[in-house]
Amino acid sequence: MQELIIIGSGPSGHTAAIYAARANLKPLMFEGMMAGGIAAGGQLTTTTEIENFPGFPEGVSGPELMERMRAQSLKHGARIETQTVERVDLSRRPWRVVTEEGASFEAKALIIATGATARRMNISGEDKFWQRGISACAVCDGALPIFRNKVVVVVGGGDSAVEEASHLTKFAAKVILMHRRDELRASKAMQKRAFDDPKIEIMWHTVPVEALGEKFLSGLKVRDLKNDTVSELACNGLFYAIGHQPNTAFLSGQLELDEMGYIKTVPGTSQTTVPGVFACGDVQDKKYRQAITSAGSGCMAALEAEKFLHEH
Ligand code: FAD
Ligand code: NDP
Asked: Do strands 237-240 and 134-135 pair parallel, antiparallel, or not at all (unpaired)?
């Protein structure tokens, strides 16, 4: 029987592991084996330079940052299994955790830190130019030199798309907000922000279909969905803002999720609708979605799990 199991291995999972291990809870982490198509270590393993994580004034590569977090978890006594959790049984305590390999574990407390996956469109050429002009995070990548004073495209019509477009106007010469319909889904206030910004141009009923370029992205083939015509558009950036998918399928409804599949937590805490089960990071946060906010909520989850174990 484990005191604490942590599922997931991004910044939130590792911060929870470091705190729990230092509290002598001997946490067991399932870091995943290409869970959701992403390597152990989570979303940051798919990116290059991180410039906004405190403590690294020169920047740090995403994989290196996650390798350092993993080493810190191990140093303090966390145990790490490279397995993906397939299902959990939260109907009674102790909680049961079953991996894809069929191994079964019990725990008195559980922290879910399985993150979210940014949706991609999988257009032709996307893999070649991923992180070479194509990204799913303007806040993370927008300031890179390849986008400075260039034309960049943001795909999507929701609040995130407008927020990302707005952020990119600080660096790009022009931002094209490309939306598949004739009306934005974003709130009225956000729509106004997009319409009023002279650097943002909206391209209605259009989607990208192919990424073009040599080493870096230099253009797109785009389809006008009304006329069903394809044309070329010169641009150096393509940012997807078409939503995220929280990694909660393995919970199969045993915890309350919101309408988009994110785990519901009591505001200001990591407490889920099941006492003794805590959630942290992007799996319960559709707003901030940053490494540092995930790490902060991982700390909260570990402290709350420690208190729960002490009281029960
Ligand atoms: P994640 O990083 O999503 O990791 C969770 C991981 O847990 C999964 O990836 C997987 O390995 C594992 N897992 C999932 N399901 C299971 C399961 N069933 N069993 C076992 N393991 C499982 N943020 C910044 O602050 N600065 C940046 O510069 C930055 N750049 C980014 C660049 C890109 C391309 C992307 C996609 C994101 C970027 N972000 C950045 C956002 C940041 O990566 C996330 O906010 C952060 O990683 C979320 O951490 P997390 O702990 O919630 O989970
Ligand atoms: P949303 O689901 O709200 O919007 C996704 C957008 O992407 C939609 O406009 C959708 O088009 C478009 N889209 C989806 N799939 C495709 C595709 N395959 N091809 C082309 N376009 C596609 O996601 P967001 O991330 O914008 O927002 C998520 C939640 O977070 C929302 O509740 C939002 O309000 C909130 N949020 C709030 C912020 C704020 O208040 N400042 C900031 C960011 C997010 P269509 O409209 O046609 O469906």
From this structure: parallel
| Identical topology for domains 2-117+244-311 and 120-240 | yes
Which ligand has the minimum distance to the alpha carbon of residue 36? 1
> What pTM value is reported for the model?
0.82
Q: What number is the average pLDDT over the span 195-204?
A: 98
107: tokens are 């725990």
Q: What's the chain's Rg over C-alpha atoms?
A: 21
What DSSP designation does 147 have? Answer: G
Domain ranges for the chain = 2-117+244-311, 120-240
Q: Which two tokens stand for residue 197?
A: 């910004």
Residues annotated as catalytic (active site), given as ranges:
137, 140-141
Q: How many residues does the chain have?
A: 312
Crossing angle for the helix pair 188-196 and 159-168, to the nearest 10 degrees: 30
User: d(Cα 150, Cα 142) in Å, to the nearest integer?
Assistant: 11
Distances, alpha carbon 50 to alpha carbons 59, 63, 133, in Å? 5, 10, 16
Class of 120-240 in CATH = alpha beta
Q: CATH number of the domain at 2-117+244-311, please?
A: 3.50.50.60
Report pLDDT digits (tens) over 240-279: 999 889 999 999 889 999 999 999 999 999 999 999 999 9
- Are the beta carbons of 211 and 134 closer than 8 angstroms? yes
Probe residue for ligand 1, chosen from 19, 98, 140, 297 as the CB with the greatest number of ligand atoms within 8 Å = 140
User: β-strands 116-118, 244-246: how paired?
Assistant: antiparallel
Taking alpha carbons only, the member of 35, 43, 41, 42 closest to residue 99 is 35
- Write out pLDDT tens, residues 76-88: 999 999 999 999 9
- Cα 291 to middle of ligand 1, angstroms: 8
